[in-house]
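#lab-general

N.A. 3:47 PM
ok so I finally got the sequence cleaned up, no stray characters, all 333 residues accounted for. can someone with queue access submit it? mine expired

B.Y. 3:52 PM
send it over

N.A. 3:53 PM
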Amino acid sequence: MKAFSQLTLILGMAVAVFKGIRDSLRGTITLFYMDKEMNERMLNRLSPTKSESVKSGRESATPTKNFSKFEESKVLKRTIQCCALNGGVFLLSILLFEWGLLPSLNFVLQKIFGKDSFMGNLVWSWMEPILSFTFKTFWVVPLFLLSKVVNSLWFQDIADSAYKYSRRRHQFMQSISKLLADSIFSIIVQTLFLIQTMLVNFIPIYMVGYGLYLIHMSLLYSLYSFEYKWFNMGWELHKRLAYIETNWPYFIGFGLPLAILTQISDSWFISGCIFSILFPLFIISGNEAGPVTGVCDYPLHLFSPVIALSDMMFNSTIGIKPTTVRVTETSKR
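B.Y. 4:20 PM
back already:
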């Protein structure tokens, strides 16, 4: 009987992981019809007769006051812009430099000085690091910082449109001070959890270290993807983290595809480009997903150490205790 219950538990967890992976890919499909449905819905809400005239190309010369306030959904446009900036400009420039310019210069030097010549190797030994340093300093780093700012605006725009598409009402936190404290505390927790993720990767046993690293990254990417939705629902940080820790099989599955795809390259910048290209799809998927809950009675308290440390840092620097709801208390609700 005990063996059967354990088998049922394992099977339920496996199904939750599979459904998490499936739901994470749903945004790829939803992306292509979301704008059309949202625009039609808004037009019909403003005026049925007006929407018909607009769709048929017979819009009157004097638009109504309500119709003048219509804002077209731009989820697909923002996603394409993310791909263009992070893939077409940022990632492509890095690949052209690393796989195009540097090998070409090295080839020219070999032709001039001869293959494996001492002089050619000497010139290349100081030319290659200087070129790499110059390229990263004056192109990669400034573009990376710029893309972070632009991406954050586009991600927010996509998240707001996706939330409207799901027909939900915004339920923001009641006070500005509470909203600010939650935002600052969230940044601290996510930063410390990312450091914790990097540390577990140094565990001497490779499979154990890498496995824990993937689990951490999967949960972190799930938090990134769902945080826009939960924030609009008025969920505080402790509640968001407790929900992930309690239903961790689903969220490991949800974040696993992005965690694996960002490991394709060892370059931090290339991984960042891949993340920024794919993340809009995961934002949409997070808004549409219905997480599988209640399959495991054992919460995975991976966020607990960084929450405790963040509490200490928050209290010592600001002097105000953040959200008073503990993760363990929230998870019981």
